[in-house]
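Cross-check.
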Amino acid sequence: MKSSSPKEKEKPRAVDSKIKLVLKIVLWCVVAIVIVVTLDRFIVWLDNRNNIVIGHVIPEDGMDVVEELPIPSEKLYMTAYGEINKEMLQEELRKTVVQIRADIVSETEGTDYTINGSGVILEITEAYIDIATAAHVVELTAEPEVYFCDGSHVNGIVLAYGKQSDVAFVRIEISALPDGIGEQVQEAKCCTIEEYNELVLSSEVFCVGSVSKVADTVVRGALVEKDRFVPLFQNDMLIGDTAVDGGMSGGGTYNDKGKLLGIVVGTADSESASVAITDVMAEYRSIEQ
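Predicted model, tokenized:
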């Protein structure tokens, strides 16, 4: 019988070492997969916790059932209305916006037509609500009809027109409002002179207006200029790259904190022009109460 050589005796050991190495690699791969799957499920769980759930109606066998669909919410941040996200902020801002309709009877043309615009609530007192709008929205009527977000509407009176800018102010007597409307509306939180002067170009802005119904349109964009001279209005205007739609004249331009920056009065070349809130408030305070 031949004795095995040292090299031949080492072969089984070498094979065993390779098998152990392969097993270790497989084991580490399994561990890695388990960790990845666990982390993925944990992330999904976190997302579901931070989701806003809305109802979605799905027809089933002729019956309407409500399925809850998770809609990812945006991050919370501090605004003029507290710590909320942008979606919640827009809902708050909608409470500051109204729709204004002016029914016009043209005696020369023999036709009737309606001018639709928007307005922003500047002040609420125990006696009245004052609203800022674009002057051209109410220039042909003394008693425009004002619609609120709950669907109610009343007639207001044109309190005054701006002396230096295309703004006007409409007043509604509290006694004329339906019960419960106070919970549906709120004053806009106006930007101060100091805050306006500190506005940064390219910062986020958005316009809220009433195209078909109250506060149904929000256009988001960026601040382009805060004091561009616009020949049409013969005034320095706040300019944003927010191309507003018809009916949004008189609506508000806000910053990402929800502060009112101006009243929308026009649009051209994918930009909106607003009367700066500093000018709006100067005009408002000059009215003889």
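The longest helix spans residues 6-49. The longest strand covers residues 111-124. Passed to J.P. for a second look.
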